[in-house]
Amino acid sequence: MAVVFEKTRGLTDVATHYCPGCGHGIVHRLVAESLVELDVLEKTVGVCPVGCSVMAYDYFNCDFIEAPHGRAPAVATGAKRVLGDKNIVFTYQGDGDLAAIGTAETVHSATRGENITIIFINNAIYGMTGGQMAPTTLPGQVTQTTPYGRDVKTAGYPVRVCEMLSTLDGVYYAERVAVDSVPHINAAKAAIKKAFQNQIDGKGFSIVEVVSNCPTNWGLSPAESMQWLRDNMLPYYPLGVYKDKDKGGNE
Amino acid sequence: MSQQYMMKGNEALAEAALRAGCRYFFGYPITPQTELSAYMSKRMPKIGGTFLQAESEIAAINMVLGASSVGARVMTSSSSPGISLKTEGISYIAGSDLPCLIVNVQRGGPGLGGIQPSQADYFQATKAPGHGDLHIMVFAPASIQEIVDMVGRAFDKADQYRVPAMLLADGALGQMMEPIAFPDESEEKKLPEKPWAATGTKGSRKPNIINSLYLNPNKLEDSVRERFERYEKIKENEVLYEEVMTDDADLVLIAYGITSRICKTAVNMARAEGIKLGLLRPITLWPFPEKAIAKIADHAKAFMSVEMSMGQMVDDVRLAVNGKCPVRFFGRTGGVIPTPDEILQAAKDVLASVGGDK
């Protein structure tokens, strides 16, 4: 009988702690498949954040370092500066980790043009701590700490990470993708693979922002959460390539 | 005889680190340690090493975490306010059993404080270098030659025990110049293997995970207990101190770092006057030479801790003496360096107040 689908060996054979319907499972698989397909899994060192994916080291079948909250790009910088071209170093970070407490580490690893890959999960909420406002929480969005909806007059505006980072000369590649549909998932896979290929080729800092969902803390079913993502997040966070030096310098 | 150099403490420390095989330095500018970073920025590119000026002390210590995780001999340096920023990373490094060297060229505090020499970070270094149950090894050199001799040892011990090491200096040691000779450099420094490092599985082993997270409280307790067993070995084997005329001393001064050298002058002045003053100089602050102090407490009439702080190490002296005799304190703070005369006067006052035979 022909094998039509196999679990990637880039993931370990354990059940994850992620909630049913959460996009993390999809993104983990896309990252793991990319590393296997590029034949770099055995020389990859991942850096996990603090947040829902804090235990990603249990799920990826490669070496891993756990960083303090927000510090993954600094940890990855230290690791990559030592390992150089011999290894692949990537971070896997959520929105609170990357765009709030770790903003400085994100911006400065980007502007230094560190030859690392960042996989950034934007689901507009703090998942692990139970649904507080994230730097990417939408205006008006209800969370545990914006119970009347995010009021931009007091809580400020969301951060659009790809747009912000694309202004930096040090960034080689920044693309925003989503995992709400098969076409989007396929495009996300291509972007993630490109971000790793860029590192293999020594091109420099690459970030893929993945617009994802959080059914548990959004208070929606998995299917409803995907629709909510399409209706609310994609208009605020348009998908697309924000920077690609393969296609020319800074726009 | 080996070559003599006239060097600033900060620069000598940097050169000694290079000679000890350190090729990765991550830092952020702060007075009074700046010459150390500057020296690294000049030398590292010439010898195939990495100097990186981070965006913050927080980023710098986390770059150290990353570099150590993949097996590098790595260091950072800062001064008091910057060390406060590093404490988050130090806790994670300690909790992940990673070796590294952290240099604190202390200045006056709290807050932004000042930029003159201080020893007011003793508590931070020895009691609370980060949150959680942890210690780091703390080395306290008293001269630039001792800095040079100690840097390699600090790196080696950090590797041996997988415990971070701190070299606790001060603005005076960092800024002053003294003649020094570097340890024998005829052989290329051989660094230990680190099979635990996260360098990629190469398909030949299970993934190496560097982490400090244990959601199961029993597993976390096991990991902390295992680390404390290593701490016990460090306390048994790695205590360093120097004694000066303690055998017959009525009053024994306890002082470390630059203050100990001023105390030595005070001891000599006292002896010239027939006053039996002695000195014990802790060279490691953690582990602390508590057994040596307890032994002296069997015959001395009193102790006086002399510090450039409002009295921090004095607590450890009291614990070591454990009530056998009075323990007093003399200190200057805020960047003021005590003089031999005022230390001698304070010693005379203590002797007058404790009086009598033991």
Outline the fold blueprint.
The complex is a heterodimer of chains A (about 250) and B (about 350).
Chain A lengths: L23 H14 L6 E5 L14 E4 L5 H12 L4 E7 H7 L1 H9 L5 E6 L29 H4 L5 H5 L5 E8 L3 H19 L4 E7 L3 H4 L3 H15 L3 E5 L7
Parallel strand pairs in A: 1-2, 1-3, 3-4, 4-6, 5-6
Antiparallel strand pairs in A: 5-7
Helix pairs in contact in A: 1-7, 3-4
Chain B lengths: L3 E5 H11 L4 E4 L6 H10 L6 E4 L3 H13 L4 E5 L1 H16 L5 E6 L15 H5 L10 E3 L4 H18 L3 E6 H5 L1 E5 L27 E2 L6 H21 L3 E4 L6 E4 L2 H16 L4 E6 L1 E3 L3 H7 L5 E6 L5 H9 L5 E5 L8 H15 L4
Parallel strand pairs in B: 2-3, 2-4, 4-5, 5-7, 6-7, 11-12, 11-14, 14-15
Antiparallel strand pairs in B: 1-8, 6-13, 10-12
Unreliable residue stretches of chain B? none
Compute the separation of the termini of chain A in Å: 51 Å
Structural class of chain B: alpha/beta
**How would you sum up the global shape of chain B?**
globular
Number of domains of chain B: 2
CATH superfamily of chain A: Thiamin diphosphate (ThDP)-binding fold, Pyr/PP domains
- Largest sheet features of chain B: 7 strands, mixed
Q: Identify the quaternary structure here.
A: heterodimer
Q: Give the amount of beta strand of chain B, in percent.
A: 15-25%
Q: Mind telling me the C-alpha Rg of chain B? A: 21 Å
Which class of chain A in CATH terms?
Answer: Alpha Beta
For the record, the CATH class of the largest domain in chain B is Alpha Beta
Uncertain runs of chain A are: none
Which labels suit this protein?
heterodimer, A: 251 residues, alpha/beta, Rossmann fold, seven-stranded mixed β-sheet, 9 helices, 7 strands, 35% helix, globular, B: 358 residues, 2 domains, five-stranded mixed β-sheet
